[in-house]
Amino acid sequence: MRRTVSFGIKTSQMGNSYREIQAIWREADQLPAFEHAWLWDHMVPLRGDVAADALEAWTLLAALAAQTERLRLGVIVTSNRLRSPTLLAKMAATVDVIADGRLDFGIGTGGSRLPAEDPTVRAFGTNPAEREFEAYGVPLVSPGQAVRDLAESCAIIRRMWTEAEPFDHDGPVIRLKGAVCAPRPMQKPHPPILIGGSGDQVLRIVAEHADIWNYPGLPSERFRQRDDVLRSHCAEIGRDPDEIIRSMQTIIRCDDPAAPAQARAQLLEMIDAGVTHIVLAALLGGRPVSWLVEHIIDPVLAGTQTG
């Protein structure tokens, strides 16, 4: 059964002030077409001046949670490398309390060592995680280790949110004694978990832990291929793959005259492939948030009804 398509807005903190982001979220909170809003999790800009402003995601999210009433909200996606899973679980529980149960918890592997031929390195000219992690004293690990650490973190975070009594954990990387999270999140059994990524092992973690899978690639046949892998992982563990919402985000440069038509075509393609959770990473260029409703959301929804 096809779910209703939902739309959210993402504001990167790179180069945006608190007041600018605050104004965007407040406007989106008043527009029923938007059901969710998201932040970006990097300590420094990925391009340009490394010393330019980049507000920290989770402290900013707490402030925005207190100033909105309707939007579901989260970080798409939190880097598992930048905070310990116990601290992150505690932070997320606090935000869910502030938001009165509106948190969607997004997480991914975070940065890792990448070979020169990796598409991300080719796109940026370097590994963007290097300057961020070196500046903040975070070690870069191999991609395989990053995935293994994500699996362990997801298991710990879920226990932090659901176990009423202190617990111990003796894992391959993390050891805990008497771990506890009080208060626990408002949502029961816990906030929805969104996991971003498309590698085979990440999709296994999605099958085991996620309520929402955020596909990080461009609209293409590759999404259908990755979705087939996710379905096979779900079959292996006896989970219904249709329990997991398919999500994607797309950048929209609102000052580009060709952008609306391109975005509408891509979104309709992905909705046809099974995506129902859409995040618009919009570079508004001074336009109001309502511009996205008029030029993107309403036409796409009309297209799904007539297609």
Would you spell out the secondary-structure blueprint of this structure?
Layout: E1 6-10, H1 18-29, E2 34-39, H2 57-67, E3 72-75, E4 78-79, H3 85-98, E5 105-108, H4 119-124, H5 128-136, H6 143-162, E6 167-170, E7 175-179, E8 193-196, H7 200-209, E9 212-215, H8 221-237, E10 245-253, H9 259-273, E11 277-283, H10 290-306
Parallel strand pairs: 1-2, 1-11, 2-3, 4-5, 5-8, 8-9, 9-10, 10-11
Antiparallel strand pairs: 6-7
Helix pairs in contact: 2-3, 3-6, 6-7, 7-8, 9-10
Description:
- The chain has helices spanning 18-29, 57-67, 85-98, 119-124, 128-136, 143-162, 200-209, 221-237, 259-273, 290-306, and strands at residues 6-10, 34-39, 72-75, 78-79, 105-108, 167-170, 175-179, 193-196, 212-215, 245-253, 277-283.
- α3 crosses α6 (143-162) and α7 (200-209) crosses α8.
- The protein has a single domain, classed as Alpha-Beta Barrel (TIM Barrel), CATH 3.20.20.
- By secondary structure, the protein is α/β, with parallel strands linked by helices.
